[in-house]
Amino acid sequence: MSKISLIIQREYLTRVKKKSFLVMTILGPILMAALMIVPVWLGMKDQDFQNIEVVDETGQFINQFENTSTLRYEYPFVSIDSAKETFYESKYTSILHITSAGKESVAVMYYKKQPGLNTVSKIENTLENSIRNLELKNQFNVTREQLDKINPKVTVKTVFRNADGSEENKSSTISTVLGFGSAIVIYMFIFLYGVQVMRGVIEEKTSRIVEIIISSVKPFQLMMGKIVGIALVGLTQFVLWIVLTGIIISVAQLALSQTIEITDKAMIGEVMNTQGAASIDTLETGTQIQEIINEIPIFKILFSFLFYFMGGYLLYGALFAAIGSAVDSEADTQQFMMPITIPLIFSFIVAQTVVQNPDGSLAFWLSLFPLTSPIIMMVRIPFGVEIWELILSMLLLILGFVGTTWVAGKIYRTGILMYGKKVNYKELWKWIFYKG
Predict the structure, then answer these.
(1) Domain boundary at 116, 149, 182, which?
(2) Best CA proximity match to 113, nearest among 127, 128, 92
(3) Which residues pair with 170 in a beta bridge?
(4) Residue 178 lies in a domain
(5) Which of 88, 130, 244, 415 could join 29 via S-S bond, C-beta 3.0 to 4.6 A?
(6) Are residues 238 and 373 in the same domain?
(7) d(CA 64, CA 140)
(8) How far apart are alpha carbons 64 and 128 in whole angstroms?
(9) How far, in Å, CA of 13 to CA of 11, rounded?
């Protein structure tokens, strides 16, 4: 077995066996699943139930409000003074006082149980729709039912036509989600595990263990073994996170659906009635989404993701290793971290502009530049990228990795055995071009 393989094995097994790795592998999926599940669960538990007394002085909104599982409207036909006087002895949680039915009407809601934003929004929408229907009838002699019959549905499908005449359906929304999702994962992976490489180098350097190791292997072999070993640790944890998060969310969804079915059948009936009225639209939308998904180049995206996932990490991992070898403590890394992290942060910020114009010159050049291509190219790929651009970007990333590894190796070779000296950029420049 080669020396680099032995170092990779050592780095991998040492970190995988740590309690911190096991704890984060378990806590990570739980936290990610909780971010998705807890808001839904809290929303189910904390429903805004309101029993509203409607005092309508105009008479235009009687029976215009629809009762739901959380909202009940009653029209006792009393004055507002009488309603206020008996409010706290009554069963009502709120009084809705309507004084006018004009274009700029103002209704007042007196409450003893704070209404939620959704409740207030529903009431406002009902009032606006009722006033709109009244204006249509009075001014244009058109009823809402007549207007609803004129219900045009316009869908703009984006179809990419290749030079050879073949066509592909593309969805900007799905492409944006895929691109940004991939970019975020790569961005987080590079930072999280790149910093681990740097800390590992600093620990070995300060503990003087590296002096023993360096007697058996070359500095470059040690650096490469450490970078690749930590990369495999990250991949292992990443795969486990995806699998465990998916299992937790699936189990939670099943449990929540059963809870809803048992505890809130009225709400299910309400949702089913609403969905039943739009079942045809839902089926059509589902068919369109399925067509778009079928057109997504899954293999191309997955292959590109894995390539830029590893390529980006290896490129930045080498630079992080160089920083770790050049300093004696983590506090001294700040001056060298900025030049390395700026391209990564910049590419993530610019990704929002790239989504708006994925074929622009800015997107094109940044997707070729090795320090920004791992993020920018992954944002562009779901929108469609020419094969020659993708191949050129990958080749440049490989060359970039080789170049940064060469530079990092030069710094690593000298800095790993240097202690007690404050290093600056001028000193690093000498190390890079030192011949010996």
Answers:
(1) 149
(2) 92
(3) 158
(4) yes
(5) 244
(6) yes
(7) 21
(8) 11
(9) 6
Which residue's structure tokens are 């808001």? 39
Size (the chain), residues:
436
Q: Measured in whole angstroms, how far is the alpha carbon of residue 314 from the centre of its chain? A: 24
pLDDT at site 394: 94
* 128 and 241 share one domain: no
Pair 179, 302 in one domain? yes
Task: Please indicate, yes or no, whether residues 249 and 372 belong to a single structural domain of this protein.
Answer: yes
Mark whether 200 and 231 lie in a shared domain: yes
Q: Is-contact 382 175, C-beta < 8 A?
A: yes
Number of domains in the chain: 2
Question: 168 phi and psi, to 5 degrees?
Answer: -135, 135
Q: Determine, yes or no, domain membership for 31.
A: no
| Three-state secondary structure of the chain | CCHHHHHHHHHHHHHHCCHHHHHHHHHHHHHHHHHHHHHHHHHHHCCCCEEEEEEECCCCCCCCCCCCCCEEEECCCCCHHHHHHCHHHCCCCEEEEECCCCCCCCEEEEECCCCCHHHHHHHHHHHHHHHHHHHHHHHHCCCHHHHHHCCCCCCCCEEEECCCCCEEEECHHHHHHHHHHHHHHHHHHHHHHHHHHHHHHHHHHHCCHHHHHCCCCCHHHHHHHHHHHHHHHHHHHHHHHHHHHHHHHHHHHHHHHHHHHHHCHHHHHHHHHHHHHCHHHHHHHHHHHHHHHHHCCHHHHHHHHHHHHHHHHHHHHHHHHHHHHHCCCHHHHHHHHHHHHHHHHHHHHHHHHHHHCCCCHHHHHHCCCCCCHHHHHHHHHHHCCCHHHHHHHHHHHHHHHHHHHHHHHHHHHHHCCCCCCCCCHHHHHHHHCCCC
Q: Please name which of 318, 161, 386 lies closest in space to residue 377, comparing C-alpha atoms.
A: 386
* 282 found inside a domain: no
Q: Taken in order 398, 402, 403, 404, is the CA torsion positive or negative?
A: positive
Q: Answer yes or no: are the C-beta atoms of 368 and 380 closer than 8 Å.
A: no
Greatest mean pLDDT range, 111-115, 168-172, 293-297, 325-329: 111-115
For residue range 225-264, list pLDDT tens digits in order. Answer: 888 888 888 888 878 888 888 888 788 777 766 655 544 4
Q: Beta partners for 95? A: 53, 110
**Which residue segment(s) compose the domain that 141 sits in?**
50-149
This prediction has a pTM of: 0.63
Q: Specify the CATH number for the domain of residue 128.
A: 3.40.190.10
| C-alpha dist (Å) from residue 407 to 211, 218, 223, 431 | 21, 15, 12, 9
SS (H, E, C) 161-172: ECCCCCEEEECH
Separation of alpha carbons 130 and 68, rounded Å: 18
